[in-house]
Amino acid sequence: MSTKKPVVVELYDEIVFPDPSEAFLARVQNHPAVHLPRLPAGLTLPPPIPVEDASKRRKGDTKDNPLSQWFLNFSEADELLQLAAARQQ
């Protein structure tokens, strides 16, 4: 039995249609190949986040990101300690 955790890599292609017309949106949603997940009763998504001016942010800047609550805090020092401990095993 191995104690190593497998690495999971997921890739997908995404096409975004900002502000689609009502007719186009209805056609896409009603297509038999489209599977839209239904949210459980009582669960609502937060409102869309306004797009910020990209020139004001540095690439990769996540400070004050409203989605940060959904991601784990990352510590480079903790990661280095875990790597060092794994190498000693």
Q: What report would you give on this structure?
A:
- With 89 residues, the protein is mostly helical.
- It has one domain (22-87).
- Helix content is 24%, strand content 0%.
- The protein has two helices and no strands.
- The chain has helices at 22-29, 76-88.
- The chain is extended and about 60 Å long.
- The chain starts with 21 loop residues before the first helix and ends with a helix.
- The model has no long low-confidence stretch (mean pLDDT 75).
- Keywords: Initiation factor, Protein biosynthesis.
- Residues 39-64 are annotated as: Disordered.
Secondary-structure blueprint of this entry?
Blueprint: H1 22-29, H2 76-88
What's this model, at a glance?
The protein is an all-alpha fold and 89 residues long. The chain has one domain (22-87).
Q: Specify the overall morphology.
A: extended
Number of domains: 1
* Stretches with pLDDT under 50, minimum 5 residues: none
Number of helices: 2
- Note the run of SSEs as H and E: HH
Helical content class: 10-25%
Q: Give the overall pLDDT as a whole number.
A: 75
Number of strands: 0
Q: How would you characterize the largest beta sheet?
A: none
First-last Cα distance = 16 Å
Computed CA radius of gyration, to the nearest angstrom: 21 Å
Helices and strands: which structural class?
mainly alpha
Beta content comes to under 5%
